[in-house]
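re: ur question from earlier - yeah i can do the single chain one, its not a big deal. heres the input i used so u can compare w yours
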Amino acid sequence: MTDPITASTDKLRAWLITGGDLAEGRHQRAAVELLDSAGLLDRRGLRTHITTRLVTDSDDRHHLIARVDWRALSAADLGPLDRAQRRLLDLAVSLGGGIPVDLRLVVCAELGDAHARAVLAAVARALGLADAVQISDTPTALLTTGAPGTGPR
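and the output i got, formated as tokens:
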């Protein structure tokens, strides 16, 4: 099997996203996207908690996927992290592994615009609204694209 520690970040990202899409579910993919937004996919300390395997989809095609051991990652030492990286990691571990997180500490003004958008996008994906909601760079950060019940109130 291919080693996640030595794989390129692009390959690892693709395996993790494929794993989320084919085997692990939308919460896993949302969590992986948060790790990516935080710039953590290249950290060796994170990669030691990722495994790969071959799966077969419904069309009998084989795919290499990766999955994160979220419980182990929650206790791992990834080296120095800034506040935004720590908050995104905590939220990713919660979404991906069901490990409780205090949202008051995760969702705060200290995140900055880019990381706040990453949190919004992850929550939309976890809710199954990734195709119905678009997160933009404009002050009107939440734009609906036609999903029933997602419009402004």
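The chain has seven helices and four strands. not sure if urs matches, ping me
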